[in-house]
Amino acid sequence: MPELSQRIQTLNTAGSDGWEVFYRARQMIAAGTPVTELTIGEHDIRTHPMILDHMHERARAGHTGYAAVPGIRPLRDAIAARVTARTGTDTTADNVVITAGGQAALFASHIALCQPGDTALHIDPYYATYPGTVRGASAIPVAIPTRARDAFLPDPAVVDRIARETGARSLLINTPNNPTGTVYPRETLEGLAQVCIDNDLWLISDEVYDTQIWDGHHLSPRALPGMAERTLVIGSMSKSHAMTGSRVGWIVGPQPAIKHLIDLSTNTNYGVPGYIQDAALFALNEGTWLETEVGEPFRRRRALALDILAAQNTVTAIPSQGAMYVMLDIRATGLSGRDFAERLLDARHIAVMPGESFGASAAGHIRVALTVEDALLAQALRELCTFAKDLTT
């Protein structure tokens, strides 16, 4: 067989990334062993039936052929209006392109902004696909370290130093953050914006959890002075409307960049199915009540989790301000996040993600997804804390 490209062969680096815990939990379940899964960010409710009904109606009505590659105009208009209302930044359909989910938007953004061999910065801890996405665009991922004692907030001075040392082309941030639940405050975002301006960086802002804010306020950095022309914002229906499998995402950015991103869509997936876009438009037009309904279980479970964790002193919670996760510091046990997760799965049949799955800065931590019903979550967290305490005695 002829040799495959270096790009595809190096998409993911060799060695363990901690996802073996997730795969092993799935194997145990398939073999009939009950496991409480607190691993991936998948809602335990499904897409609202009325959205599915509308999707079905539009498919039956014939919107099953090629849809407009940039996205249907009414959906782009609705996203533009939503962004304008929430950020105060004037946005039109010409600033929006629809993508096959937020992941495709991340990949397209790096393809658009980075030349082969460019350095693309991202914050550690990070969503697990970030480095592979950057490598897929033939750029070089460089992680910016953060510290647990700072709630994993990036230090703009550190970002500035690394940007200068590497001659970076872009910076990827994620707020509210997966895996940490941290919401970047204005001061941090203003500092990062100044770094981007000083170093002539593009900023890619992953904001797919912007409807899940439990403490503080979400600020899109595109709204800061001088940033609209150098920022691409990633959005998605997946988390806000429990439409993970529908694959509807978008990029919001300056019109010249969006024009070229539409060309990229033409030469890659050729658009998102029209009837699915129709369903996304229907969901957005329902207003904020639906987003609140989707997010409310995570708000409630976050409070439940913090109450349980406050009742013991072995496991420490990183302040969780948004998204559907809590990040827990288990370094008091003397174990790595990977070892703790492996032993917890074996001993208690509870599956969590090792912090090391999300980068070196999260070593000695685990991520817990708040994606099971309340009573089961409470039981699992109490067992997790007891297990951790037993390791220290």
From TrEMBL:
Domain (Aminotransferase class I/classII large): residue spans on this chain: 35-383
GO molecular function: transaminase activity
Co-factor(s): pyridoxal 5'-phosphate
Short name of one Pfam family: Aminotran_1_2
InterPro entries xref list: Aminotransferase_I/II_large, AspAT/PAT-like, NHTrfase_class1_PyrdxlP-BS, PyrdxlP-dep_Trfase, PyrdxlP-dep_Trfase_major
Catalytic activity, EC: 2.6.1.-
Family: Belongs to the class-I pyridoxal-phosphate-dependent aminotransferase family.
Name of the protein in its database record: Aminotransferase
Organism, as annotated: Tropicibacter oceani
